[in-house]
Amino acid sequence: MSSSHTSKYSSRSTPQSMSSHQRSAHPSEKSSRSADAFVQDIHSRLSRAEQDERDIQKILVPRLAKRAYHLEDGNTWGQDWLQYQKNTHPVFGFCFHHPLHPIRGPQRVIILMGSVAFGLAITNIVFLGLLNSASAGKFVNSVYNITGQVVDAQYRYTHVELETSMVFLWTVGSFLHSVFDMLIWYLSACACFRPGGITGRNSTYCQNFALYTAVLVVVGMVFVATLVVVMRLNEDNEKWTQLLPWLDDGADSNSTIFPNFTDAVMNTSQADMFAESIGTIEEVSNTTSFENSTNATGFNIPSFSIGDIFYSKEDTKYAFLVGYAVELTIALFLYYPLTSTMFFSGVLGCGRIPILGGRPFELRMLAMKNGRNQNDESSGNNV
Questions:
Q1: Contacts of residue 72, Cβ cutoff 8 Å, sequence gap at least 6
Q2: Do 86 and 96 contact (CB within 8 A), yes or no?
């Protein structure tokens, strides 16, 4: 009886002990499984985030490289215009460009150097009068003459005296300057050989070749700018040598080496001729006097005064820098935003031509692409 009792007891106790063992093992297994699930969930989220980031890069980087007018889906006209200016402007782009932008700091320095050199070159070309010479060609001469006619017309209505060369520099010159900035940008970015470009290839060789070509163009422009600056300084020196030989020879103001003027005093017509020859457009008084002045080093330098305005050779030698500073400012902060906005709006291509079509053309192409993708998906589901 005891044995049967024992067997019954043991038979009853065995399931209880097993169930208690299962209950004691279940929390640890559940904790282990939940930890594994948590790790897998984190890993899957990171994988999805990395994949999403790669997908965004595949979309944005090519658009940034080719100066896309429409960057991100859902952007308004104002948002796209603002990002376009921040990513492409030669100056603002240093601080405000997109983090994923393929054009980095060194490349932007090259672009800015090219912009500065181009502005300096065209300023001195205008000041040297090369655009009005026969060597410039009929087209350039005609544009320059049209600018002169515009200046004459505005003088008849406003009585504001402007110089044709300066008006040409601040209009046509600044416009060409902004166009050069855009061209050197496209060359440096080499958007055609990046993912999503026209060729559909990601060629590092072509990208490097385009960058080195842009550097070569910038070096050439710096050389041209240096050349025309030296030509300008030499021409200014020759003018002073021809007009003021008595100063260059160290003679006093009563010297007869300068027979056209008596006691270094000119009448109004002579003063006008002199002022025009050195590039000044200030109104002259009845008499203009000349004298030797002493600079900080103790050497005599040629100088003259027109009324109450005093000029010296050292001042007029670098007078073109004022025109250059104005041209550079207008080109970068006026004409560049206006020119880029004109391309951005698509008015030049009525929204239907690549590049000239601007943002409307890109939105049209994006809508067509999305429509084709939807048609492909629907046809695949039907099959």
A1: 60, 83
A2: yes
